[in-house]
Amino acid sequence: MARYVEVLFRYWVRFAIVLIIAPLALGGASVAVFRTYQATASLWVESPDTFGQSVTPSGWNSYLTPAQNQADTLQQLITTLSFDDQIGDRLLAKGIVGNRDQTNAIVASIPVGMKVTPNGSHLVTITFSSASQTAGVGVIQAAVDLFLERQIALQRHQEDLSTTFLTGQLKTAQAQLTTSEAALQQYLVDHSNARLSTNGQDTGIVALDQLVHQVQQNRDRTTQLQTELDQAQFLGGAAQQLVETNTKLVDAPHISHAGLTGDGNSLKRAAIALLVCLSVGILYVLVLVWADKTVRDAKELQRRLRVPVLATIPVMHLEDRP
Amino acid sequence: MRDGNRLEATTELSERIATALKPRPLAPGYVSRTLQATYPVTLSPLFIDRCRRAYLSVDFEQQDGAGVLGITSSIRGEGKTSIAIGIATAIATDTQRPTLLLECDLERPSIHRYFGFQIGTGLADLMEGSAPVRILRAAAPPNLHVIPSGEPREDASRLFYQLSEGQLLEELKPHFGTIVIDLPPMLDIGYSSLASQLSDRILLVARYGVTTIEDLEKTVFLLGRKSIAGVVLNGTEYKTPEWLRRLV
Questions:
Q1: pLDDT tens figures, A225-245
Q2: Helices A298-305 and A2-10, interaxial angle, to 10°?
Q3: What is the DSSP secondary structure assignment for residue A294, as one 8-state letter?
Q4: How many Å separate Cα A155 from the centre of its chain?
Q5: Does residue A262 register a pLDDT over 70?
Q6: What values do phi and psi take at B45, rounded to 5?
Q7: Residue whose C-alpha is closest to residue A53's, from A186, A239, A179
Q8: Is B135 helix (H, G, I), strand (E, B) or coil?
Q9: CB distance B230–A304 less than 8 Å?
């Protein structure tokens, strides 16, 4: 131990450079030159129960909180290239960034720099770190706008798909009903003595009974499809309304961390610089101690040789006679 | 011729030692044929005190004659000779008894530079039998005496072996309270194991920031842990504040 301490004091200038001046310079440069800002926004997500029935938007997981659902969706969205490119296009269009290179640099930083965190059950916090305050706020604003637009578009698409499908089914069923009713009518014209049962029971005429059953089945099918279509239209509209109304920007994008500390990354870099310098310093001490095989400590000498050290004589000069 | 010289040297040794030890007023630069005086070595009081601290921590076993303390290091340039001089000075000052500093670094003698005398003849010449013993008396403290090793020798191993096998130290012991031997660096010579035979205890000098632990471990192995009284850590230059060093 004494050897290590002695090395520190012996080469104190070198260690002062490695352990104090270098970390200060690197940390200072990190804080002053490579300053970053953190922009923040908050979204409030309402529960689907607000609409009084179990209306759930597309991709909604009922086992997660509303905030978690939206945070998951947004988090996945920002990792997609198309979403990030669209953000870049908006920044360029609004004049927040000057050219395509800057846009590309910001777009490339979105998957790493943007954090979406559910806060509690209904609040989602979005943060983004950037070297520019304007870009930071702009990216979050564009991301939130795009997210809400995409959600609504998705719901519309889902609704369109289901109504188109059910409408087609309904039309087919209605055509079949018309055909079967026409066939029944034709049978009754052809067989004037045939009468329909008033109490709904079979007439005993096999062909007539089959036609009646066919009409009834088609009527039921048509009614059922009509009900399903009505419900789908209602649920689609409700879900769309839910997305439009239940996700609100309650805290507009703003710079939350500025100044010397910025978003904390500057301090992190400074801390890393300090750690690196400290490691280099420790390594340097170890190397110096390892390389120096000479006697530096009386206690160590005594321990290694198992011979007592009787005296230590400090450096002094014996005057030689001429 | 050499044998004749050696005999002469041996017979004259006691006489010359007695001459050297005889109290007489000395002036710096005083030179005689058999006895030379040295310039006073300027040592920092702090340095001597630290050397004294090391010396006082050495536990000499009970013995009749002088205690022989060897000072050595792993490699050159660790301050071994300076500490040998510092310890010898401290002992001479404290005990007031005749103290001898014997330079045994035959390959690279350096004591003459500290005391400021001409290198001349010395221990190596005595061992070869080509010159009588040369004992110098330090200007201060006056009871400190020095036997230099003489001119650098290439066959130091042989001479060192002769020294360890001969009776020189035994003859010197009765005349001195303590004999401090400035031994050669242990990893630079091939006869390091003999060093422990010359000395009762050995102080190992290590230089802060220069000597490697590995070299010291080798030295301890060569000398044998039992003969080593301890280590003197020389040239410490701690940058860590004292209070913090105590904590860690």
A1: 999 888 888 877 776 676 667
A2: 140
A3: B
A4: 20
A5: no
A6: -55, -35
A7: A239
A8: strand
A9: no
Rounded CA-CA distance A48/B30 in Å is 118
Exposed/middle/buried for residue B12 (C-beta within 10 Å: 0-12, 13-18, 19+): middle
Write out the E strands in chain B: 35-37, 67-73, 99-103, 135-137, 144-147, 178-182, 201-207, 228-236
Q: Which distant-in-sequence residues (6+ apart) come within 8 Å of B207 by Cβ?
A: A295, B73, B77, B78, B79, B233, B234, B235
Tell if the CB–CB gap between B206 and A295 is shorter than 8 Å: yes
For residue B99, the SS3 value is strand
3-state secondary structure A129-173: EECCHHHHHHHHHHHHHHHHHHHHHHHHHHHHHHHHHHHHHHHHH
pLDDT score at A263 = 63
Rg (CA), chain B: 18
CB contact, 8 Å: A303 with chain B?
no
Q: Among A310-319, B100-109, B138-147, B229-238, which stretch is predicted with the lowest mean pLDDT?
A: A310-319
Burial A45-59 (b: 16+ CB within 10 A, else e): beebeebeeebbbee
Structure tokens that stand for B181 in this block? 């031997």
Model-level pTM? 0.61
In terms of phi and psi (left: phi > 0; alpha: psi -120 to 50; beta: otherwise), the region of A254 is beta
CA pair distance A40, A162, nearest whole angstrom: 37
CA atoms within 13 A on the CB side of A70: 32
Contact B202, B222 (CB under 8 A): no
pLDDT at B30 over 60: no
pLDDT at A11 over 80: yes
Q: Which of A10, A11, A288, A295 to mutate to test the interface with B (most CBs of B within 10 A)?
A: A295
pLDDT exceeds cutoff 50 at B1: no
Residue B216 has its nearest CB partner, among A10, A12, A305, at: A305
The DSSP line for A84-104 is HHHHHHHHHHHTSSSSHHHHH
pLDDT at B33 (0 to 100): 35
Say if the Cβ atoms of B225 and A307 lie within 8 Å: yes
Give me the residues paired with residue B181 across strands. B70, B102
Give the tens place of pLDDT for each residue, B213-247. 999 999 999 888 888 999 999 988 888 888 888 88
Which tens digits make up the pLDDT trace of B81-95? 999 999 999 999 998
Q: Which residue of A has its CA nearest to B49?
A: A313
| ipTM topping 0.85 | no
